[in-house]
Amino acid sequence: MSEASVERTLGQILGELKGIDDRLKRADDSRAVVHRRLDEVSERLSHVEGEVEATKKTVNDMKPVTDDMAQLRTQAAGAGTLGRWLIRIGIGVVTLASWIVAGYTWLTGRPPP
């Protein structure tokens, strides 16, 4: 082999080594970015966990109030049903009384005393 050929081959090898070195540096930079992002995600996740715990506490504090409201709604629905039945019974009593008065008036020919 001639000296020019050896130098050219050596230049190619050096160029390839430089390319490999550049790729390794970019890979290192890329890994550093990935690690930084993982650290950021980890930090945000810890903040989210703290917020979830605070939200759990708030929801647990609100649960008795929600249960009481559900119970009050049920009681109100029951009171409404009772009221409707009492009105129906009242209408029935008034109707029965009017029938009795009408029957008394029809039988005796005069209004009740």
What does this structure look like?
- The protein is mostly helical and 113 residues long.
- The chain has 1 helix and no strands.
- The N and C termini lie far apart (146 Å).
- The mean pLDDT is 92.
- Keywords: Membrane, Transmembrane, Transmembrane helix.
- The chain crosses the membrane at residues 85-107.
- InterPro entries: DUF1515.
- This is DUF1515 domain-containing protein.
Distance between the termini: 146 Å
List low-confidence stretches: none
**Strand percent estimate:** under 5%
Largest sheet: none
Mean of residue pLDDT?
92
* Tally of individual helices: 1
Helicity range: over 70%
Decide which structural class fits the backbone: mainly alpha
Query: What coarse outline follows from CA principal-axis ratios?
Result: rod-shaped
Q: Tally the beta strands.
A: 0
User: What order do the helices and strands follow?
Assistant: H
Cα radius of gyration in angstroms: 46 Å
In a few lines, what is going on in this structure?
With 113 residues, the protein is an all-alpha fold. The chain has one helix at 3-108.
Indicate the topology.
Elements: H1 3-108
